[in-house]
Amino acid sequence: MDFSKVKQAMELKQQLDKIQKELAKIIVEAERGPVRVTANGQQKLISIIINPEAVNPAKTKQLEDNILKTINDAMEKAKKESSKQMAGMMGGMGLPGLG
């Protein structure tokens, strides 16, 4: 058994774990009308805030549309920011084709 490969795999896993922790620290926000969504670099939703004045039982369709679009905006921002951060971090790992 080639223990150097096992050691490399363990080091790679440690670096990937570190990257995941760094991505969790990246916070992005998107806002559309009365809806504000916060997500992190792991593309997980942190919060959804809706202005209470926007809640009208007769007009739920518009609010639903705003929520959906704002979530998509936040996820796109999180994806772009995490890709940018990962490119920088992965480049430091010395992997061919990255950085």
Structural class: alpha+beta
H-E order: HEEEH
Biggest beta-sheet profile: 3 strands, antiparallel
Radius of gyration: 19 Å
What topology, given as strand order, has the largest sheet?
A: 1-2-3
Strand content: 15-25%
Helix content percent band: 55-70%
Q: What would you say about this model in short?
A:
The chain is of the alpha+beta class and 99 residues long. Helix content is 56%, strand content 18%.
Describe the model.
Binds to DNA and alters its conformation. May be involved in regulation of gene expression, nucleoid organization and DNA protection. This is Nucleoid-associated protein ABV300_07010. Belongs to the YbaB/EbfC family. It is found in: Cytoplasm, Nucleoid. Its main location: cytoplasm. With about 100 residues, this protein is of the alpha+beta class. The model has no long low-confidence stretch (mean pLDDT about 90). It is built from 2 helices and 3 strands; from the N terminus they run H-E-E-E-H. A 3-stranded antiparallel β-sheet has the order 1-2-3.
